[in-house]
Design brief:
2 domains; three-stranded antiparallel β-sheet; about 35% helix; two-stranded antiparallel sheet; alpha+beta; 4 helices
Length: about 160
């Protein structure tokens, strides 16, 4: 795998290519052989998961060995947990399985895997995904529309004041 497929966790965008991050992260090319393989649909426990939840990957790549990769079983639809794993209630539940007193708290994976989670049927997952995807698309559309209205307002104000 090429070095440009080194992925890092983003609390907003999930797993993204490291070169997309505004931070210059140094790493030794020789250490790449120890990196972990990420596949689309994987959920990643990263160093800031206790604050922002798990990162979802939509792409193939490799990541730091410090990350823990969770791969869905066939009983889970692609992306089903994406919204849940970044929800406030889920992030609050991580307090039960984190430890450490430093800024970046660690997650005890063994304890994390014991957290109770209700897994709906595939049919119910599909229904939930359809609804959440529709809401997400509507939110993106309305955000773009709002940006256009703001731009239009600024144009009108400039035209009025000139």
């Amino acid at each position: 795998m090429a070095v440009e497929n080194v992925l890092s966790a983003s609390q907003v965008h999930g797993m993204i290519e490291r070169k997309e991050i505004d931070i210059d992260i140094k790493y030794d090319l020789d250490s790449i052989k120890n990196y972990k393989l990420i596949e689309p649909g994987d959920y990643i426990v990263h160093l800031r998961s206790f604050q922002g939840g798990l990162a979802f990957s939509r792409k193939y790549g490799i990541c730091s060995p410090a990350y823990t990769i969770l791969r869905s079983k066939s009983t889970i639809l692609y992306g089903f947990w994406e919204n849940f794993f970044v929800s406030d209630s889920f992030i609050k539940s991580l307090r039960l399985v984190t430890y450490g007193i430093r800024d970046g708290r660690s997650i005890n994976i063994e304890e994390f895997l014991k957290l109770p989670v209700n897994v709906p049927s595939i049919e119910k997952q599909a229904e939930i995904l359809k609804i959440t995807s529709g809401l997400k698309q509507k939110l993106v559309h309305n955000t773009r529309l709002l940006r256009l209205y703001i731009d239009q307002k600024e144009w009108f104000l400039k035209a009025l004041l000139v």
